[in-house]
Structures are given as C-alpha cells and as structure tokens.
Amino acid sequence: MKQPLLALTLCVASATTVFGQGQTLSGQVLDSAGKPVIGATVVEKGTNNGTATDNAGRFTLKTRTASPRLQISSIGYGSQEVAATGGEVSVRLSDSSTSLGDVQVVGSRSQNRSVTDSPSPVDIIDLREVTTKTGQLDVNQLLQFVAPSFNSNRQTGSDGADHVDPASLRGLGPDQTLVLVNGKRQHQSALVNLFGSRGRGNTGTDLNVIPAASIERIEILRDGAAAQYGSDAIAGVINIVLKSSVNELTASANYGAYDAKYRRDDQKFDGGNLNANVNYGLGLGERGSFVNATLDFNQRQHTQRANVPAPDGLARREYGDPKVQNLSAYLNSKFALSERSHIYVFGGANKRTGDAYAWTRFADDDRNVPAIYPNGFDPIITSDIWDASAVVGLRTKLGEWDLDLSNNFGSNRFEYGVENSLNASLGAASPTSFNAGGFQLQQDVVSLGLTRNYKTVLNGLNVAAGAEFRREWYSLFAGEEASYRNYDPNLSGGSQGFPGYQPSDAIKADRDNVGAYVDAELSVTPQWLLAAALRYEHYTDFGSTLNYKASTRYNLTEFLTLRGTYSTGFRAPSLAQINFNSTFTNFIGGDPVEVLLARNNSAVTQKLGVPALKQETSNSANLGLTSRIGSSLSLTVDGYYIKVKDRVVLTSQFSADDPVIGPDLTALNVDQAQFFANAVDTRSLGLDVVLNHTAKLGEGRLNSSVAANINQLKIDRVQTSGRLAGREDDFFGPREQAFVKASAPPSKINLTFDYQLGRFSTLLRFVRFDKVRLVDFDGNDMNYEARVTTDLTLSYALTDHLQFSVGSTNLFNRYPTFFNPNNTETGGAWDPVQMGSNGRFYFAKLQARF
C-alpha cells in the first residue's frame, strides 16, 4: 500500500511545483468561415487543466507549465495543437477531416472529404471522452451505451458466447458488420454463436481484444459498403483508429462492482471489475515518426443471479456473468523514410481466460455420479483464447498518386476446458476436469491501393483503385478422449456441461479470395457531390460476386445538406459456418437433450438435400439530411432500407422421431440435429437521428445530445430445399425467427448531458431499451418490456495531472422482465437482452496524464 501512496504524493508534489511556472492566456477560436466556435474545449497538453470558449468563441486559461501547448477541439471540427508563448492566441478550426495523419475516415478514400459533408452517415466517437466519463470498460459495452445503432448483449449460459460478446449494427447479424483497424480488415473470431438472443448461428469480430486505452476514436459507417471494403459490410463498417499521440503518458486504474440484490448468500456486491492500463507515445525525429504503445489488464469476477423471484423457482444453482481475465498489448507506429514515404506497423496480442457456469446437474440426475458429487454439481466451462494481429505497410508517392501497400495477418484461437465435471459413463473412476478441444481461425491479407485527386476536374475529382488477396484458414481440433467418449451405452457419455469435440468433428479447411475495386468522388459544383464504387471478388469455395455503390450529397443552404446512397452487397459464409460440426447438450424445458450440429456437407445434410452454403446478398438505400447551425447545434437524420437475401442461419432442431432423418439421428445416439443453411430473406426499415448541442451555462459548458435508432426487421421468406421442401415451420420456426428479430429491437434512444465547470464535470445519461419479443420452448410469447437505465458520473481534477471519477451505471437498479427459468434459453430468469441483467454498477477511477 505504501508504494501507491508514495507515487500519488510525488504526482501531487510535482503538479504543485510547476503550478507557479504558468501564465494566463487568452484567445479566440473561430471556424473556417471566421465565425466563433462556441463551447470549444481548450486543454493544456499533458494535464487536466482546461476551459471552454464562450458565446464569442473566447477563452481565458491560467496554464500550469512553463512552455504550454494547447489542444483545441470541438464536435464536428478537426482538433489543433498550438504552442502558447504568451499574449493573444487565435485559432481557426477546419471541418473534421477524413484525413487525420495517415488514416482516413471510413466511407471515403478522398483526402479532402469531411465528416459533415460525407454522402454516408458516419459517427465519430472520441474514446478519450467516453472512457473518462463512463463506467463501461470494454469496447463492446462502451459502444452499447453511446451508439444507438450498435447492439451488444453480454451472454450467460451460452457456452463460448459467454466469453466473446456478439455485437451488431442496425439489428443485423454480428457477421454482417465489417471491422477495420486503422482502415485494415480485422480478422473474425473463430467462435460460432450457438445460443442466446443475439448472434445465433453467426460468427463475428471480437472487439474486446483491442483495449479501449489504445484507441483514439471509433468511426461507425452506418451504410452498406461491400462495394468499397468487401465482404461483411452489409450493415456498415466499424473502423477503430489507434492512438498516435506522442510525448504524453496516460494511465488509469478503475474498479467497480454490482449491487448483488439476487444472491442466495449475504454478499452485498459481486462481479468486481478491475482495469488498469498505461499508454505512451514516443516521437522519433522531425518527420512525424512515432511509436505509441498500450498495455491493458482487465479482470471481471462472476456475478450470481440464480436466486431471483422468478415464476416456478430454480432451474440452476449458479447463474450469472462469467469470470474473465484479459491481458492486452497494442502498438501503433510510423517510420518516415523520406518526405514522401513512410512505413507503418501496428497490431497487438490479447490473452483471455475465463470460466462460465453451465447448467446444474442435481443430486438425483442420471448424469451425476453421487460417489463424486453427493449433492450434485455445477460444471464450469473454461476458455483459453489467444488473439493476435500484425499489419506492416508502406505509404509513398508515385508521381501524383498515393500508394498504400500492406500485409495484414490475424489469428484467433479458442480452446475449451471443463472443470467441476465428470463423464458419467466412467462412473466413480471419472476425472473431474477435461480438455474439450477447440478451433482456430487465421487470415492473411495483402492489399494494394492507389489514390489521386484531380483538383482541376470541375470542383475536384478523387479516384481510387486497388486489389486485395486474402487467404483464410480454419481448424477444429478434438478434445481428450474422456471428454467425448461414451464408455457405457446405458449412461451419458462425455464431459458434463460441454462434451468435447470428437475426432470425427476435427477438420482443417482454407480458401482464397481475390478482389479488385475502383471508386471515384466528383465535386460537380461546390454544393454537389457524386460518388460511385465498383468491386469484384472471387472466392475459391463458392465463386464470384460483383457489387456497386452510388452516392450523392447536395448542400441546399449553408446550414442544410441532403445525402443519399444506394448499394448492393454480399457476405461470404464464414469458414466456421461451412465446417463447424459438434454434438452438445442443450436444455429444453429444463431437460437435457443431445443435439448434433451437422456441418454443411455432412451425411445428414446431404440426405436432406441441403445445398452448399453460398454468399448472402443485399440491396440497401440511405436517405438523410445534415444540418449545422453555427458551432453549437448539429442534427443528422438518416432513413435506411436493407434487404438481405439468402441469410445464413442456424435452423430449428429436428428430433429423432422425424420421418426423414429420425433413424439417422438414433444411429448417431443424438436426440436432435440442426445445421446451417441459406434459409431466410429479411427486410429492415429504420431511422437514425443524432442531435448535438453545446452551450455556455454559467461559468461552465453543457454538451447535450439525443441519439436514437428506430428499426423494424421483417422476415420475408423462409426457403426450404430437398426433402424438407414445404416444411418451413420445421426448418426455421417461430422460435428461431424470434431470435433473429430480437437482434433488431424497435428502438434505442440515448439522452446525454455532459457539464464541465472548472475542475468539476458531471455526466448524466438516460438510455431507453425498447421491448423485445422471444418465444419459449412451448411456443408461448416472452415479451421483455421496455426499460430506461440511468447513468451518472462525477469527476474532479485533483491536480493538473490527476482526475478522480465516481459514478453508477443503471443507477436505479433496473432489471429485465422476469420469466420462468425453465423456459428461457439460459436457464435464468431472463434471456440475454440489451440492457443486461446484473443491475446497478458502482465504479471509481483514477486517471493520470503527463
């Protein structure tokens, strides 16, 4: 305890020493047209010392360092850093540019495009602002509460999805959103989500492998973009931009815990969440070279929510969030070769371990061995996940062309273990822990891009073209023999909680993909922009696809802009969806059932006449307006339409008494079977609204925002084939359809107030999560009513370098609607829904900046 106190004392002493070295500065912040920017943030670099501009764009700041540098920013404008040596400081902010350093804002390859005049809707989320003032610690949960079109559920009782949170945009699947890091394609997780209300049957990208402390901003393109970026970009694109700051050290320590209202014991808090991170950037030379590195540790403990006042009592003795430990290291760097060329290197590694509760085996359960567990047992499913990525590239000038050549490698490996378990067919001789096998997905991408701007063609023409080669590998490997084998046909075999993968499940698969694109943006007049993109891709496992996108934007007045897009898109079925095969235990109405998930080309699917998986295709349109009145008020409204054909879904489960495949399932010793198929067409209609306002309030500044997503998803068609033709309700029934629709709640609305006054700031946020409808095992509706959660954070700058924050998320301890645990997917009193099911969370954090 003495060392942290000594460090804190030294920080305070250092801040006090430099206090007297400062000066009083005054100045004015204007926009590019010379108008005052109201409420702009003016911060002394390396400190928490700052202020805001008044209604005339003016500010006064008493600095704390001898040679201060000011960082000036405002929503919708590019930030600036200026040296302040005394006297009057005058700064002009340009519109937020798509080119910050060498990284473009997603959605445009033009170096001259700003966010406000983009033909597609783009959200820019400043992670420094978000992480400073909120209690969420991982990227998924941060975005869940600040971006209305983004949805992520924390799962429990869902096997692998307990350890990897699925996430999506605009109510589509997790694998229908493309994730980029610094503009380069991020590899997906090897996991296929099998349970839960979101991401069922989907693969997706694990955003939580990237620590929030390493991120400068997150850009969310809410528009179809397969013609620009390739597969998966049906719903949109999330671009994570890593930090490039130099000569600045930031560190933080965070701890929080949940109000343990529904525990069986007397414990008042649980789910303790500890996070500690440090980030530092080192400048190299005079040409902008730098190395920026981040180290992050996060540990989350179990929550326990089995003892809830749900109808019909207890289905499980252990139910709640898994225990997870995350260690990440990330790097972003640039090395100048000349004035025209530089090399960039970025990437990182993440090691995650976790354990999650499986369903209880009670003492009289025939899957229990009383000699080992006289009171029954609660199996623990463990995870050991390794994730790594590395990108190396060269950017240079070839005459008037900008060239970008890069290689990008990524890998995700997921290994299962089972503890506190047994193999009942071994009797009292059974081990109690098992290696259950797992899977791995790897990706290597070589890409070449060329961009050129022709300033003399009308009011500017930007042309980009490029090619990409991508290879993907997928492997599924078996567990130890005792984890899957049945040694006594009269008893249940395999490790209870999670049967291991069998040698017959194991597979190694790979495929190649070649793509080429061209896109152009033409400013016909200063008010009118036209843009188009065309992309061709060929996959070795299913063939070729050609997609296009057309966009336009027109400035009706200085304050009002109209924009629209139309595009086609596609998503290649993942190698995991094509090749995954497993036998697992599901609980239906509280009773265990052995289920075979048969791979796409298995004997079972071939007998049914299920065709090979092919790409999903989409048509989408976006029509919107943007308005900016001065520097204090901005509004964007975007309506969208997305039609997806041949969506890859996980079918309903066919039982052993099925007249077509029943005998085959009986021979395989399983009760039910399901598989992947291009079975569903969906149609989404929605509206995104974002309103931001900045105002001086007394001596402080108040930022207010309303952000809403309104969405309606309909299933137009269920397509059957082969020997299942005409059996739509058996193939993809109401229960599975409800899972798809639950990924698209009717609305999510955020209302946020952020007030800054000197060293004090407070954030108050209300989030309304709309109703969700699911279907239980008996075919009855389960209607989760709408809920409003309230978050409150209070922050105070202890010194110029240290800030302390305390607060609560879900301040009023709101829970989802309670249901019979025997009828939910998870065996708890609720299914995974957006708002979460852990109740009130208290947190405190200490942040340092030097």
UniProtKB/TrEMBL annotation:
What cellular component GO annotations does this protein have?
A: cell outer membrane
**Keywords, comma-separated and alphabetical:** Cell outer membrane, Membrane, Signal, TonB box, Transmembrane, Transmembrane beta strand, Transport
Q: What name has this protein been given in UniProt?
A: TonB-dependent receptor
Pfam families on file? CarbopepD_reg_2, Plug, TonB_dep_Rec_b-barrel
Q: What's the domain of life for this entry?
A: Bacteria
The keyword Phosphoprotein is annotated on this UniProt entry: no
**Cleaved signal peptide residues:** 1-20
Q: Where is the TonB-dependent receptor plug domain?
A: 115-237
Residue stretches making up the TonB-dependent receptor-like beta-barrel domain: 400-811
What family does this chain come from, according to its entry?
Belongs to the TonB-dependent receptor family.
Localisation = Cell outer membrane
User: What's the source species for this entry?
Assistant: Hymenobacter swuensis DY53
Query: Could you tell me the membrane topology recorded for this protein?
Result: Multi-pass membrane protein
